[in-house]
Structure formats: C-alpha cells, structure tokens
Design brief:
Elements (H helix, E strand, L loop, with lengths): L10 E2 L2 E2 H17 L20 H25 L4 H24 L7 H26 L10 H29 L5 H8 L4 H32 L5 H30 L8 E4 L2 E4 L8 E2 H23 L10 H30 L1 H4 L8 H32 L2 H28 L6 H23 L15
Antiparallel strand pairs: 1-2, 3-4, 3-5
C-alpha cells in the first residue's frame, strides 16, 4: 500500500482524498442506475423527431459533470500539480458531484422546477473552476520533465478545449434561463443572422462536442503521461505521431466549434464528401460528413489509438518496463478506445455519408437505425465507455493485484458486450427494447458486478500512487 508524502496528503475533514473519490464514485454509480426511472433505455431524445428533452438533458449533466470532475482530479494527481491547485480541484469535484446529481435528480422542467436549475448550475460553475485551475496549474508547473513535451501540449489542448466548451455552455444556459433579457444576446444573434433560438441551438452543439471530446482527451493525457514515458525506436515515433494527431484534432475542433458558435449563419459547420462534391455549405446537401465529426473521427480518435497502441505494444528504454497490472489496464483501455472509434467514427461516418438513408428526423428507409445511432453514440460510446476507462485506471491504483485482475476482466467483458449491443441496435434491429437492449443490459450487469467488487475491496488509501510511472 502506498500513500503520498504525509505533508502533501489531501483530506476533507480527516478523510483522505482516495476515500472521498470512492464515495463520489459510489454516488455516481447509484445515480446512473437511477437513469432507468427517467428513460428506459436512457436517451436524451423522446422519439425520432423531437429535440433533446430538458429533463433528460439535466439528468445527463449530473452524470457528465461528475465524470469530468473525477477525471480532472486524477489528472491533477498524475501531473503532480501544486497542493493548492489539487485542493481546489478536490473541493470543486465534491461540489460538482453532489450538486450535479442532487440537482439533476429533481430538475425536471423549466416551468415547474425552475428553482432547481439555479441549484444545479453551481455544479457547472464548479466544473468551470476545475478547468480554470487545471489550466493555471499546467501553465505554471515547474516540472521540467513535463514542460514543453508533447504530453504537456496534449493535456493543455484537452483542458482548454473543455474550458471553452464549458463557457459556451454557460452562455447557452444563460439564454435558456433568461431568454431575451437583457437584450444583448438578441442583438448579437440578429447581427450574425440568427433568431435567438437558432443561435442557442448552435451554442449547444459547440458546447456538447467540445466537452465530450475534452473529457476523453483528459483520459488520454493521463494514460500518455502515466504509462507512456521512456518509449524508444518505432514505438516512440508512433506515439509522437499519435500525440500530434490528437493535439491537432483538439485544436482544429476547437476552432471549428468557436466559429460555429459565434460566426453566424454563413459560418455553420459544412459537410464534406457530399453528393454535390467534396464540400458543401451546411443545409445545401442531402448527405455528407460533418466537418467537426470528421475532425474527431480522423484525427483525435486515431491519434489516441496510436498513442495507446505504442504504449501497450512498444519497446521501452533499458531499465523501464510496464508492470503486469499496467499491461492489463492498458489492454482494456486500448480495446475500449477502439470500440469508441468504431461505434462513433465508423458508424457515424457511414450514417452521415448516407443521411439520405439514415436521417432519423425524416421519413427515410433506415431512419430508425439512424435514431439508434443518435441515441447510443452519446449514451454508451461517449459517456459509458469513457467512464469505464476511468474506472479501469482507478482500479489499478485502488485495488490489490489479484482483485484488480478480476475487476479489469469484468469491465472488459462489459465493454465488449455493450459494443456488440450497439452494433445490434445500429445494424440488425433498432427496436428500443429489442435484442440490442438486452445485450447492453447484460454488459451493464458486468459493470455493476465490477463496481460492487471495487467498492468492497478498495480502501481509504491507494495501492499504487498516481504520481509514479507504472513500471517495474
């Protein structure tokens, strides 16, 4: 068992921070199980043609903000930010989780429970504070081994992407709550050619894409710095190429989404590979791949696979090698990342390229399959699978090796089952309670089994420090 230096150990009312993380994670698991009472299967959408449901979106935010907070806390430990930065992030993470889940549980309507949006919004502000603190901590770090490295640029790109996405979300939330008051937002929306509602929709699109990809980028940064140092030869070159791909993906996506959010009707995200040619302005083609989605699927996710693959399969310098526990964790992370790429990028590109067949908002041949993708690529691929990646990392550090091996196996089985279930939904049978539902439900049972074992066997102290490399 290992602990940080006693003078540097963070506590809340005498409880070590790993114990606090266990409690927060348990609360998030219970909250996630509760989603079946909001929507079964859980979806942000009521049906094919209606927009995102407010009640479900607020419940979803309770899960998403908590996941982002705990990921940020682990990142602060892995990158050894100052104790002050880590304490701010710890307290803000506690606030983000507690307020996020309690607010999300009762914030059902802008009309009937509007008071609770004012309560839940403090979880969003807590996440803003976390991302600002991470940005400051990374920019001012005195770790000479980190500064100027590709890993430093990667984590900064992920954090800044998340911060910009969060601030855009704050603006969209302000419009949602205050409408046309005080009037400047109406003036700006009209200036760039939108109605206020259309501008808010564009802000929400930019917000959601930036935040989701940023959190996954934070996970990639943790993996890259924790496990990926001291590679040599071909592995080092592959890792470097993957890091630059991921950094470029984050940077380009941020530019695209900021322009989309504030540039106006003539700066909406275009489509490429359309039936009218390589490029077409948004709304002028029947089908085509969204440029933002193309950036994520062709730069960021492939970059991550190269980084993970190089670390898992590549050769380390003499005197450095991954421990057996680290290899086990990385294998699960690699397979999960591949599943995300295939279910989001692979199926997403297909369905956007053939939107004439898959558009869920229109009466087209494969519209039900398009709706299944619309529902699952967010709820399973971009929320549940990254959450399982986080648990895989936590498991290695919180559990003894024999127990960790069992938990990692259960988590990997759940990833495989959930991925298969997604494909059943998207390719074979799109019925909400059809065979895909039961395959994913079986995967969720394995998740619950893994989490029960995790909470039963983990303690208040770490078995392996987040601050040291996972080498033997």
């Amino acid at each position: 068992m290992t602990t940080d230096n006693q003078e540097d150990l963070m506590t809340i009312r005498g409880h070590p921070w790993p114990q606090v993380v266990r409690w927060l994670l348990a609360l998030l698991v219970l909250y996630t199980i509760g989603s079946v009472f909001i929507s079964n299967p859980f979806s942000l959408f009521v049906d094919r043609t209606t927009p995102i449901d407010y009640s479900r979106a607020m419940y979803f935010h309770g899960m998403a903000v908590g996941l982002a907070g705990i990921t940020s806390l682990i990142l602060a430990e892995v990158f050894t930010l100052t104790k002050t930065c880590r304490k701010v992030i710890l307290f803000c993470t506690v606030a983000a989780v507690l307020i996020g889940v309690t607010g999300g549980a009762v914030n059902r309507s802008m009309e009937e429970t509007k008071l609770f949006i004012w309560y839940q919004i403090f979880s969003f502000f807590a996440l803003d504070a976390i991302l600002i603190t991470l940005t400051y901590g990374l920019l001012t770090t005195k770790d000479t081994a980190l500064r100027g490295t590709r890993a430093w640029y990667l984590v900064l790109a992920a954090v800044i992407t998340g911060l910009i996405g969060a601030l855009i979300g704050d603006l969209a939330g302000f419009i949602l709550d205050f409408g046309k008051w005080p009037g400047i937002q109406v003036w700006y929306a009209n200036l760039i050619g939108y109605s206020l509602q259309d501008w808010q929709d564009n802000l929400l699109r930019s917000h959601s894409d930036l935040i989701v990809v940023a959190v996954i980028g934070l996970l990639l940064s943790v993996i890259d710095w924790k496990y990926g140092r001291h590679l040599e030869g071909t592995a080092a070159r592959v890792q470097a190429f993957g890091e630059w791909l991921a950094i470029a993906g984050l940077a380009i996506l941020t530019v695209i989404m900021v322009v989309n959010a504030f540039g106006g009707v003539n700066c909406q995200i275009p489509h490429i590979f359309t039936e009218k040619g390589f490029y077409a302005p948004r709304g002028t083609s029947v089908a085509g791949i969204d440029l933002g989605d193309f950036t994520i699927g062709s730069l960021f996710f492939p970059g991550g696979i190269l980084v993970l693959g190089a670390i898992l399969f590549g050769k380390k310098a003499a005197g450095f090698s991954l421990s057996a526990a680290s290899k086990r964790t990385l294998a699960g992370l690699f397979i999960t990342w591949c599943s995300i790429l295939v279910t989001v990028g692979g199926m997403g590109f297909l369905e956007e390229y053939r939107a004439d067949l898959y558009n869920s908002a229109k009466d087209v041949v494969l519209g039900n399959f398009g709706f299944a993708f619309k529902m699952l690529h967010v709820d399973v691929s971009l929320m549940m699978l990254p959450a399982l990646m986080l648990v895989m990392i936590l498991s290695q550090h919180f559990l003894k090796d024999a127990v960790n091996k069992t938990v990692q196996t259960l988590l990997l089985v759940s990833v495989i089952l959930c991925s298969i279930g997604c494909f059943v939904y998207m390719v074979v049978n799109p019925s909400l309670l059809g065979p895909g539902y039961w395959v994913i439900a079986a995967g969720f049972v394995f998740v619950i089994a893994a989490m029960v074992m995790f909470f039963k066997k983990s303690g208040a102290q770490l078995e392996e420090s987040f601050r040291k490399e996972s080498v033997k």
